Amino acid sequence: MNDQSGVSIPNARTRRAIFAPHWGAILALIAIGVVYALLPQKVNGGPAWLLLTIEGVILLPLLISILTEHRLSLTTRRIGSLVLLGVVTLAMSVAVVHLIFTLKHDLNGATLLYTGLLLYACNTLVFSLWYWAVDGGGADERLLSEHRSFDFLFPQQMGGFDAVWIPGYFDYLYVAFTGATAFSPTDTMPLTHRAKFLMMAEAFLALLLISFVVSRAINII
């Protein structure tokens, strides 16, 4: 769209892509760092503040790009997001492995329940971010054009219910929560191999935590 002087004016959808902040995802990343810091030291395997520090280093340029006019390119944002997701996923996976190896040692029942719940919450948050980041090429791609999300089929997208509806972070958090709770899709269906793989990985980790941690803690108590 052009004005009378011939200068190109971005349409409403483009403006949304440029200025829409990803606060939900940013808060979820911070929450993951806080949860990791609250884990017992024998489970997180290092300084409690380490993951939060790494997140801060990677998130700072993104926050600056959101709050100022010095915008990062979409490619840079996506690469940074995927790197950060890889870091938090690795940290969570290591914590789960450490917890399993400490089950027979000096963690009491209450501590096991506490740790298991923290890791369960971390698992839900991590995979909600993965769903949010990969569906349809990412949040920026879903907003920039008529490009539709295609990794997941939400109820709002069925039967032409809402042709312009775009899922936000909370929608993916809901998908992650129901997937970790029911160990299967509920009202939102995975359509691609990567979406199905992510849902399988989340359900596996959730089942692992429940079967190993909660059952062991109940036996101890």
Protein architecture, described:
- This protein has one domain (13-220).
- It has 221 residues and is an all-alpha fold.
- Helix 4 runs antiparallel to helix 5 (74-101).
- It is built from 9 helices and 2 strands; from the N terminus they run αααααααβαβα.
- A two-stranded antiparallel ribbon has the order 1-2.
- It has helices at residues 12-19, 23-38, 41-44, 50-67, 74-101, 109-134, 139-144, 169-182, 193-220; strands at 152-153, 189-190.
- It is flat, with a radius of gyration of 20 Å.
- 31% of the residues are buried.
Distance between the termini: 67 Å
Largest sheet: 2 strands, antiparallel
Biggest sheet strand line-up? 1-2
Spans of at least 5 consecutive residues with low confidence = 1-19
* Mean of residue pLDDT values: 79
What integer value in Å does the Rg equal? 20 Å
Structural class: mainly alpha
Query: Please, how many helices?
Result: 9
Report the helical percentage. 55-70%
Tell me what portion of residues adopts beta-strand conformation: under 5%
Q: Would you report the number of β strands?
A: 2
Order of helices and strands: HHHHHHHEHEH
Shape: flat
Count of spatially separate domains: 1
